[in-house]
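for the record, two folds in this file. i put them one after another cuz i was lazy. first one right below, seq on top, structure tokens after. the second one comes after a little note so u can tell where it starts
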Amino acid sequence: MDMHADKGREFWREVLGAGGPTAIPRWTAKPSQGTAVCETRVPDELVGGLRGLAGVLGVPVSSLWLAAHARVLAVLSGEDEVVTGWVPVGGGRGLPCRVAAGGGRSWRELVGDADRVASGVVGHREFPVEGLAEGSPRPGHVRPPRPPPPRPPAPQARSPRGRPKRSPARR
């Protein structure tokens, strides 16, 4: 057996163990399937600030973006650990990326963890992860919302002997 393939398989099984992409709530009247793309220009001042912060923390700017994205997903989904798609610097296919982004962690800790996660993903990007993901939702697939839990039955009025009282209409 190929030990490199075994390590890659184990790495991706751990990443995919969370069960697929993190679902976020929809705020539209008519939800639709699939994904959407929204592009926006990031102001030059912000880009400069991010580069400076990345230099201070000793990480690439992409780790700052991944940390911020994971934190937003954690807040929106209510989950402490999120799975999102991530495209390594330089391009290539999008890969699943699992980041622990909830709780009372500092931004410095979150950015450091995001950087370690991104490095792990890059180190295993050649493994054919698509075959392992067959049982999980497709990238971009939005899981339907869970139905609300059933309501408990309405309490019934009881007689002093513990029997349900009849309604006045039945008497």
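(here's the note) second protein begins now
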Amino acid sequence: MFQFAVESYRSCSPAASCFSEMAESKPGLRKPVFIKVDQLRPGTSGHTLTVKVVDSKMVLQKGRPDGPQVRQMRIAECLVGDETGMIVFTARNEQVDLMKPGITVILRNARIDMFKGSMRLAVDKWGRVEVTDPADFTVKEDNNLSLVEYELVNVVEE
């Protein structure tokens, strides 16, 4: 296999771009798989969801408001949901500005964090929060996944 790699490398002339051939054979980005809120489970990540913002509440604002944006830290807890249920989304810094009640957003590469035994949805620097066209669903408010309390249990195998 090493010989093949060396031979194929040598077959490329300096003027020809071997790197472009390798880039063309590389598969493109995969299509996102959108899931519903009721499919979220503790400890999972990489989720893509379309949700509506039901409520938003600022819980932390550190730094001077007139200071540079880099030094200011803001955290808001937002209640988001779709037609299957609701969950608390923790918005950080510039995400806080996007999370206004009634707005529909797409959460890409979201993960589930556990806070005091309950699930919280979050998007870190590897994910993205995008405002999108208003969705035509109504949020199912009687199924709040953040109200379900989980307990970590150690199982001892004998």
